[in-house]
Specification:
alpha+beta; Dna Ligase, domain 1; 4-stranded antiparallel β-sheet
């Protein structure tokens, strides 16, 4: 980011771009993820992270963006130190499953 901030909308501009990059990469590699996390480097150079895990793997862009937004909102409500840099990560990677077979595919 260009300057240290606590402004959620400014931070979301950066994280939304990161989410789109992650989404593109996971789609290209046919991967899904179970956990979404944020990493924040603060003005005082301390590093903080938050994450959220899902019951089943996903690779949805909106799920990613909404989860990151929720994590940031909670984090910013707990902190009064400005954020210098922010990152987004996914973990618990798995090969994306193909769509479920139809019952009629077994009758031939």
């Amino acid at each position: 980011m260009k300057e240290d901030t606590l402004d959620l909308s400014h931070i979301l501009e950066k994280t939304n771009k990161l989410c789109e990059e992650i989404h593109t990469e996971t789609l290209q590699r046919a991967l899904s993820f179970r956990t979404v996390g944020i990493i924040a480097v603060m003005k005082d150079m301390s590093i903080h992270g938050r994450s959220r895990s899902f019951d089943s793997p996903t690779n949805g862009l909106e799920v990613l963006k909404l989860t990151v937004r929720g994590l940031l909102e909670k984090f910013l409500s707990e902190s009064n130190v400005k954020i210098r840099r922010v990152g987004v990560k996914v973990s618990g990677l798995a090969k994306a499953e193909k769509s479920q077979k139809q019952l009629t595919s077994f009758i031939e």
